[in-house]
Amino acid sequence: MSTELKGSFKFGFELKEKDLRRIVDTITDKYSNSKSNNLIHQYKFKDIKGLVTETNNIDDIFFDDNVGSKKISQISLEIYDKEKTHYSNVNFFDLKSEKDEKNSINYKLSGDNRDYVFVLASELDDRINQFKKINMSNLVSDRFVPMLFVMALIPVLIILTFIKSADFKKAKIEFIEKISLENYTDTISGIKQLMFDIQLHQPTRSSDSPEIIYISFGSIMLFFVSYFILGYFLDKFFFPYNFVWGDYASEFEKRKKIRNGIFYTTIGGVLIGMIGSYIAGYLPALF
Question: In terms of residue numbers, what domain contains 90?
Fold first, then answer.
C-alpha cells in the first residue's frame, strides 16, 4: 500500500549549496543500500529569463554565475528508484519571479513503506527549518496595506478624541466660572449682556474639527511616507528568496552587511537619543 505526503511553506529562505546537498543526502540515505545504486536523480533549474535546464548531476546547478539574467528563480529535484516504489520531489521558488506559485517551498513524498515516508518528511522539515527566514516583504505587500493603515490611523483618532474631549470639558468649566450670574444685573441690559457673553465665550466641538482634520491628514501622509521608505529599504536589502551560491553569494553578503549597518545605526541613534533626553531631563534636578 502506497503512502503519500505533501508539505508546503510560504516563508523566505537562504538556501546555500550545502543545504541543497544535505536535502539530497537526506532523501538518498533513506533508501536501502540495495536500492541506492539504482536511484535516479533529476534536477531542473530555471533562471529569471525563463531558461529551463534539466540535468542528472547536481553540480550543474552551481556552475552558473547566478546573477543578472542567469539568476536562479526555481529549483526542482526528483529522486526515485526505477520501479518508483519510492518517489521524492522538492521544489524551491523565488515568488518575486515565479508569480504563479503560491508557496516558496513544497515537497511531495510517496512510497510503499509508511515509516519511510513519515520519517523522511520529518527530516526534510528539520532541514528546511535550518535555512528558512521571515519574509519581511510581507510587511509592505498590497494585502497588508489597508490593515496597516487602519492600525496606524485608529490609535491617532482615539487619542485625538480623548484629548479634544478633555479640552472641551476644561473649556466648559472655565466658561461656567467666567459666566457667573452674580456679575450681571437683573435688568434687560444685564440679560442682553449675559446672552452676548454666552454666545461669545461658549465652547463648541465644531471649533475643534479643523484641527482634528489637519492632524488626521498629517498622520495619513506620515504613514504613507514611512510605508514607502520601509518598502524601499526592505525591497533593496531584504530579499526573501535566496539561492546563495555563485557570484550571487558575494552580492548577498554585501547587501546583508549594508542592511545590518543601517539597522544597528538606526537602533543606536534611537537609544542615544532616548538616553540623552533622559539625562537632559534629570540634570536640572541635581542643581
Answer: 3-135
